[in-house]
Amino acid sequence: MAKKFENSINVFAPATVANLACGFDVMGLAIDSPGDEVHVEFNRNKEIRIRKISGDGGKLSLDPQKNTAAVSIQSLIDDLHIDQGFDIYIKKKMPLGSGLGSSAASSVAGVFAANELLGRPYSRRELVPFAMEGERIACGSAHADNVAPSMMGGIVLIRSYSPLDIISLPAPKNLMIVVVHPQVEVLTKDSRAVLPRKIDMSTGIAQWANTAALTAGLYSNDFDLIARSVVDHVAEPFRASLIPHFEDVKSAALFSGALACSISGSGPSIFAFAEGKKAAKEIAYGMQMQFKKNKIKNTAYISSVNTKGVIKLKA
Ligand code: HSE
Questions:
Q1: Is the CB of residue 25 below 6 angstroms from any atom belonging to ligand 1?
Q2: pLDDT, tens digit (0-9, with 9 covering 90-100), for 64-118
Q3: Where in the chain is the domain with CATH 3.30.70.890?
Q4: Ligand 1: which atom is nearest the Cα of residue 195?
Q5: CB-based contacts of 133, cutoff 8 Å, min separation 6
Q6: Can you say how many angstroms the Cα of residue 267 is from the centroid of all Cα atoms in its chain?
Q7: Domain with CATH 3.30.230.10 in the chain
């Protein structure tokens, strides 16, 4: 029977925790929720149009040149040398400027959806560079530590950007991620601007030792080693002050039993690693109470590592 091609598709792309403390710009993982739901359909007028965005409080532009999903799809069709048009409808189901990879989720959802409609010319891994173009316009840097895990699922390590070399790492079964998002907005662009251009040798040594050790900990299910390695000498010292009460929330997480705690991506969300669901709930409670005590509204998400990445939803 001939394959029936679809004209439209609904997809869900998950939020992500980038950096994982020691892996600035080179490590990230996907969580189950929140995420973005995106509907994409063919149009006949050869243009990429953003038809509707909901859940963004009116903050995102409908201009396709400023929208990460549209920019990612454009880079895909440029690469294919075709002039197919698409209409895009985006439901933001996650906060913007949160450190949860919001722009990346839209990029991933858009380009994955278009690729499916076109008969899947590229694999998930091959789609990552197109989604990175969305990051470039969102924050001025085409990093892959949000788009790669949102696209492929799991925990990823980006060994090299040129050429792009993405390595999937194993996720210990009992590893839980707690992410607490305080209702303050920190734009990636701004939290990248506070970072130094250069680091000294001793900082580099400490950081790459931890990145390697975390990788070993994930392979060997060694939670003690994971706890010792999830430490950030590069970004956290400079970014912590952008997040109100960061040190108190981190202390609360560790006091409540977290293996480790640091900034999720560029913040302001804060993530903690936990062994098991019960511990994760207690840690989330401890972190939330610290924000609450300081009158900062916040939301907690608890998840194991999402190994699927972006998925097609039922029509
Ligand atoms: N690695 C990036 C950063 C992730 O920390 O700036 C944010 O998108």
A1: yes
A2: 999 999 999 999 999 999 999 999 999 999 988 899 999 999 999 999 999 999 9
A3: 175-304
A4: 6
A5: 71, 72, 74, 75, 107, 142
A6: 11
A7: 8-170+306-312
Scan for tokens 């899947």, then name that residue: 120
Q: Express as a percent the part of the chain with pLDDT over 90.
A: 90
Ligand 1 center to 189 CA (angstroms): 9
CA–CA separation, 228 vs 166, rounded Å?
24
Ligand 1 contacts CB of residue 143 (under 6 A): yes
The two beta strands, 48-54 and 85-92, are parallel
Rounded CA gap, 154 and 31, in Å? Answer: 8
Nearest protein Cα to ligand 1, atom 1: 25
Domain 175-304: which topology?
Alpha-Beta Plaits (3.30.70)
Tell me the CA–centroid distance for residue 24 and ligand 1, in Å.
7
**Distance, C-alpha 109 to centroid of its chain:** 12
Residue 4's pLDDT is what?
A: 60
Amino acid at 95: P
Domain 8-170+306-312 has CATH 3.20.20.100: no
Does the C-beta of 265 come closer than 6 Å to ligand 1? yes
